[in-house]
Design a protein that fits this description.
The structure holds two protein chains of two kinds.
Chain A (H helix, E strand, L loop, with lengths): L15 H39 L2 H34 L5 H7 L2 H4 L2 H12 L4 H8 L8 H26 L2 H9 L4 H30 L2 H7 L9 H10 L3 H33 L3
Chain B lengths: L2 H6 L14 H30 L3 H7 L4 H34 L5 H9 L6 H12 L6 H7 L7 H27 L2 H8 L4 H30 L2 H7 L9 H10 L3 H28 L10
Helix pairs in contact in B: 2-13, 4-8, 4-10, 6-8, 6-11, 8-10, 8-11, 9-10, 10-13, 12-13
Classes of the chains: A mainly alpha, B mainly alpha.
Chain lengths: 280, 292
């Protein structure tokens, strides 16, 4: 495109102006303008308006539940996600391919469907819920239920971020380590794990960020008791139904700020990891 | 999945190899991983169908013999029929601009395209109320022309487009970057027009990634719950999509009908996963890695 000679390097391939222009236009209308509306509304609140919303105990406990349970669920998903990624990449067993495909289920299954399935499984009359209740663990209508739903949602992020890196590990390095007399455990801790840790953190941050905002899979199993198992996204919905737009925006901005911080953290980890280990 | 992952599936280390764990450790880890996947993913999936057929095949099919259910299915199809092609055109344009050319600000652009992934579904609905709602940014304009966006079908479409926005672009960008510009440059040098080069050279190279992107986008568009729930207004028979209808039925304790309607979306998710598995297995090099 002759109109944009300065901003791109020369190329014989046509369509730069058209495709970039269209991309920027659609991005602005669909994504940037609506997000701008949120920040405009929130900045209209001012510091005192924000403080008023946040000083409400119900808002505080909803944020505490959302952040706290997401954090725990993301840790749990990262640890088991690592074991699953390791087993799927390194070992071969019957049903291997099926198990690998199943990992993506939470990406494709609608959250509301996951929500009602988990609620009926873990309810006090459900097959898993009744078993757990017999040993004194009540899942449905407690924060434990939120935890179960968020592990479901976070698991594919944890598995899929480490899996390609486990596949990339060069066997020669492990062989060298073993030949030089290292035990398998020593090789694992000192040779194999260090380059995987950044990816595990990325998986954790993705699962955590997703967990904070998750709505559909949580609300059916959580019971939504204010101060106990009410999550921040649900409180936004409640405030909207009461036409309290300021309250809804204040909570939304806090959730977005934490999500964006996670996104930034992921980018920093990946940049550091590229420099340190030479892979993405 | 990258090529290496697919290949590693068939790579069985020798039993006594120094680069694997002892037999017992391996069995234990496989056991833990499979148990975890079964309990957390497979059992909920089976539950959907088990509950849907709990009162027999007839009760299952009777669940669809209902005006509201049919209206919800129809609305969901309409929304997907608009949102998916929209994101398809965007995805192709964005990946062409990003993968084929070098320009400053590229990584910022990719980050901005990814933004909807880090926005809670509920907030994704909220922002459209702030733009198009009764007190929204564009309210005076909408009132002048007497157009209703939120609590109506256009709002549902917009929220769905927002939530599924990055999916196809995310699938295509790494794929087109990996393939480089050589093929297109050759076609153009031989006299092909830009569009002709895209259709006959680029498109065949990206078709499997594109297919998976479209399928995943469609599954997500039809299944979106949080964002659509906020902008829909829940007018039964008019602005209820399948997931919203599932919620209503479940809250009315009509479990067979709720799971029966939910089984449609579950079937769609399964088809999407099966096609992804086949594509990963057969065309792994043509299906670039993407976490979503």
């Amino acid at each position: 495109m002759a109109s944009l000679p300065a901003i791109k390097q020369p190329s014989v391939i046509p369509g730069f102006g058209l495709t970039l222009g269209y991309t920027l236009f659609v991005l602005s209308v669909i994504v940037l303008l609506p997000l701008f509306a949120l920040f405009a509304k929130a900045s209209g609140l001012g510091f005192s308006g924000f403080w008023q919303v946040l000083s409400d105990h119900r808002v505080q406990s909803a944020l505490r539940v959302s952040f706290g349970v997401s954090f725990l669920a993301a840790i749990f998903a990262s640890l088991f996600g690592f074991v699953i990624a390791w087993v799927l990449t390194r070992y071969s067993f019957p049903g291997h391919r099926l198990m690998d495909a199943v990992v993506d289920l939470p990406f494709a299954l609608p959250t509301a469907v996951a929500g009602i399935a988990l609620a009926s499984l873990y309810g006090s009359k459900g097959p898993i819920g009744s078993l757990l209740e017999a040993i004194g663990i009540k899942v449905a209508y407690t924060p434990v239920g939120i935890f179960v739903a968020l592990v479901f949602i976070g698991l594919p992020f944890a598995v899929r971020t480490v899996q390609p890196l486990i596949a990339e590990i060069e066997r020669e390095i492990e062989e060298a380590s073993a030949t030089l007399g290292a035990s398998r455990l020593y090789s694992l801790v000192h040779i194999i794990l260090p380059p995987l840790v950044p990816a595990m953190f990325t998986g954790f941050a993705l699962a955590f960020a997703r967990g904070i905002g998750e709505y559909g899979s949580v609300i059916f199993i959580a019971g939504n008791l204010p101060y106990v198992s009410e999550i921040a996204p649900l409180l936004i919905v409640i405030k909207l139904s009461e036409f309290d737009y300021s309250g809804a925006c204040a909570i939304a901005v806090i959730m977005l700020a934490v999500s964006f911080a996670c996104l930034l953290l992921i980018n920093l980890i990946q940049a550091w990891s590229r420099r340190r280990f030479g892979h993405v | 999945m990258s090529e290496t992952t697919a290949k590693s599936n068939v790579q069985e280390p020798a039993i006594n190899s120094v680069v694997t764990e002892s037999r017992g450790t391996r069995a234990l880890l496989i056991g833990v991983a499979v148990f975890f996947l079964l309990i957390f993913l497979v059992v909920p999936l089976v539950t959907v169908f088990q509950q849907a057929f709990a009162k027999g095949v007839q009760a299952y099919f009777a669940s669809f013999d209902d005006d509201d259910a049919q209206a919800a299915i129809k609305l969901t199809c309409i929304v997907a029929a608009i949102a998916v092609p929209f994101n398809l055109v965007f995805g192709i344009a964005a990946s062409w601009a990003i993968a084929k050319f070098q320009f400053p600000g590229k990584s910022l652009l990719i980050t901005l395209i990814d933004l909807p992934f880090s926005v809670s579904p509920v907030v994704s609905g909220l922002i459209f109320i702030l733009v198009f709602g009764a007190q929204g940014l564009l309210a005076p304009l909408l009132n002048t022309f007497d157009v209703q966006i939120v609590f109506a079908v256009p709002g549902i479409v917009l929220a769905t487009v927002f939530v599924t926005f990055p999916l196809i672009a995310r699938q295509l960008i790494p794929l087109m970057e990996e393939q480089g510009n050589g093929d297109e440059e050759a076609a153009l040098t031989l006299g092909a027009s830009g569009f002709h080069a895209f259709r006959t050279v680029t498109l065949p190279n990206i078709k499997w990634g594109l297919l998976y992107g479209v399928l995943l986008c469609n599954a997500r568009a039809m299944g979106e719950f949080g964002a659509v729930s906020v902008v829909s207004g829940h007018i039964r028979g008019l602005t209820d999509t399948i997931p919203l209808h599932v919620e209503i039925l479940y809250n009315e304790y009509n479990f067979v009908a709720a799971f029966a309607v939910a089984s449609l979306l579950t079937g769609l998710a399964l088809v999407t996963l099966v096609i992804k598995a086949i594509l990963t297995w057969r065309y792994s090099s043509e299906l670039a890695a993407g976490a979503h």
